[in-house]
């Protein structure tokens, strides 16, 4: 197949926009809070997700949209808040891919979407959930110590 149906083009555009948003958000967290994990690793994974989607745009001779999210994302005061927001974003990403996979028709598009969804569900989401536990555990421990004084 040398071209995509309009629906698959819209699916690609929506998926790329979501990946741009994630990359920009995680990049902003790093700029605000430093080179913190898991944001550093997952930002690089998001860059690979963007490249995978962009390659489909190129393969099907479509113009590659620019990232509209640079310097337009929410900012977080601390790692706990950033990780909580990232968990919500990854859950929304998995849901988005469920919807997009339900409408995509092109085998190449479907394969890339499945891979990206699996990465979000199986790797990114658990990493951010661990981040919440770690950051929250530190915070609770501090509160607990204060209560014992």
Polypeptide structure, described:
With 149 residues, the protein is mostly helical. The chain has a single domain, classed as Ferritin, core subunit, four-helix bundle (Ferritin). The protein has 4 helices and no strands. The protein is globular, with a radius of gyration of 18 Å. The termini are far apart. The C terminus is likely disordered.
What key phrases describe this protein's structure?
149 residues; mainly alpha; Ferritin; 78% helix; 0% strand; globular; disordered C terminus
Question: Topology of this structure?
Answer:
Blueprint: H1 6-33, H2 39-59, H3 79-103, H4 107-148
Helix pairs in contact: 1-2, 1-3, 2-4, 3-4
Structural class: mainly alpha
Per CATH, the class reads: Mainly Alpha
Distance between the termini: 70 Å
CATH topology: Ferritin
Write the CATH architecture name: Up-down Bundle
| Sheet of most strands | none
Q: In DSSP terms, counting alpha (H) and pi (I) runs of 4 or more, how many helices?
A: 4
Helix content: over 70%
Number of domains: 1
Overall pLDDT level: 91
Which regions contain 5 or more consecutive residues with pLDDT less than 50? 139-149
- Helices and strands, in order, run as HHHH
The fraction of residues assigned to DSSP E strands is: under 5%
Estimate the global geometry from the Cα principal axes.
Answer: globular
